[in-house]
Every structure is written in C-alpha cells, then in structure tokens.
Amino acid sequence: MVIEVFGYICAVLIGISLGLIGGGGSILTVPVLVYLFNIEATLATSYSLFIVGSSSLVGAYKNYQKGWVSVKTALLFGLSSITTVFIIRKIVVPKIPAIIWQTDNVTITKDTLTMVCFAILMLLASISMIRNKQSEDQNTVADKNISIMKLLIYGIGIGTVTGFLGAGGGFLIIPALVLLVKLPMKEAIGTSLLIIALNSLIGFTGDIGHFDTDWVFLAKITAIAIAGIFVGGQIGKSISGAKLKKGFGWFVLLMGTWVIVKELFLK
User: Fold this and answer.
1) I need a surface site. Which of 2, 177, 262, 264 has the fewest CB within 10 A?
2) Which pLDDT value is given to residue 209?
C-alpha cells in the first residue's frame, strides 16, 4: 500500500517534469509502473505511451495558447517519428520473443532487456539535463529555412526510442529543435510537448489488440500526471527552470544506475 502511494506521488512528478522542462516525464514513467505497480516491462512501455502522450497534449495546448508551439515544425518532425513509432509498436514489438538469449547460466528476457536499455536511456538523459548547455538560448531566432531532411532523419531516431521503450524522448527533441531549427527555448519546450504527444498517443494505438489494458488504472495515473503539469506550471513561475532541470538530471542518474544494478545484479 505504501509503495502504491509513493507510485501515485511519482505520477505527479511525471507531470511536473513535463510542465517544467518539456520532457523527462517518460523517463520516470516506466520504472514507476514496473517497480512500484508491479506491471511487466513491455506493458509498462505501452502504458507509458498513453500517460505521457495525454499529459504532453495538455501541456502542449497550454503552451500553444501562449504562442510557444511551432505546429509546422512539430508536423514535419512528427511525419517520420510517428510513422516509426506506430510500425515498431504494431509490428516489431509483438514479434520480439519473451526469451532473447539463454544459456545454462544466463537468461536474458524481453523484460530485462527492455529495462536495461531504458536504464541506459535514463543515464543519457541525465547527462543531457545535468550539462544543460548554454546553447539552449531563450532568445534564439527561429530558422525559417528548416532542413526537412534533418528533421525526418532525427524523427526516425526519436520514433525508434519512443517505439521500443515508451519514452517520449523530450531530452533529445528539445536540443534538436534548438540547434537544428533554432527555436527559442520556450518554443522548443512547447513544440517538444506536441511532438511527444503525437508520437506517444499514435504509438499507443499500435498496441491496441496486443495487451489487456486496465483502463481504470491507466486513467487514474494519467489524470494525476496531468494535474502535475498544472503544478509544474505554477512552480516554474518562481523557480529557475535550469536549476530544476539539473536537479532532476541527478535524480534520473541515480534511478538509472539503480535500475541497471537491480536488473543485472540483484535478480
């Protein structure tokens, strides 16, 4: 019971993260579902797509109202990433065997591989957040000559990560929008939320028919995460987003390390 309560608290943190820094929420979602709610890893990646997608859509709408979403960029980026996510969830993931590798001494299951890969993603995300490069400038001027090919290729990469691991990839999307498209930081965060929402929700539709979904539980966690977005919006008015991002990065680093230790050494 205590563990579940902590899980619901973490669901609020998922939304707060999305509301504050336009990403990071999905990095928490899968470990929370697996370790606090005892949901098997592959199903957790599916649930993560719905939770993060729905929460991000609310956050994107809030940012759109403020003029901080580049719909054109989101659609160009999403053209390849959404297609990639859907194909991976609909066709590739169901074909991955439950046991990837087995010898007399070692057994690597689909769930173990998923969590180890996810932990590696967490470590990469944490480094990105901790470094928090100054190149992510609030006053960057948007590039009107967007490289469509670059966005399409990068979109495929993001779609692959989202498809296999159920992670929105905000920590990868935001630097791409700032460095490739030259969006101002606030607009990059808002646009990132729209891209994450499109990737995740359409990716989730690829799972329909592959899992028995507990819609009541899913709706509950999603509602809590959405509430967290509004909390994050209020917090962001009084606390530096850069400091929060770096602090969250250290937290993700610790969690990623713990997941690797648990999956590889404590089983």
Assistant:
1) 2
2) 84
**Is the CB of residue 136 less than 8 Å from the CB of residue 178?**
yes
- pLDDT value at residue 145: 58
Question: How confident is the model at residue 258, as a pLDDT?
Answer: 92
Secondary structure (DSSP) of 51-71: HHHHHHHHHHHHHHHTT---H
Average pLDDT taken over every residue of the chain? 84
Q: How many CA atoms lie within 13 A of 35 on its CB side?
A: 17
| Rounded CA separation 235/240 (Å) | 9
CA 185 vs CA 30, 88, 248: distances in Å: 27, 30, 18
Among the ranges given (90-99, 128-137, 197-206), the one the predictor scored with the smallest mean pLDDT: 128-137
* Contacts of residue 77, Cβ cutoff 8 Å, sequence gap at least 6: 151, 154, 155, 158, 173, 176, 177, 191, 195
Tens digit of each residue's pLDDT (9 = 90 or more) over 4-57: 899 999 899 888 877 776 666 677 888 999 999 999 999 999 999 999 899 889
Q: Based on the structure, what is the number of domains in the chain?
A: 1
Tokens of residue 252, six digits: 């993700």
79 exposed, middle or buried (CB, 10 Å; 0-12, 13-18, 19+)? middle
Q: What is the DSSP letter of 96?
A: S
Contact 165, 84 (CB under 8 A): no
Alpha-carbon distance of 224 to 64, in angstroms, equals: 22
Helices (H), 88-147: 93-95, 110-131
- Report whether pLDDT(137) > 50: no
**Enclosing domain of residue 39:** 2-265
Pull the structure tokens for residue 228.
């967290």
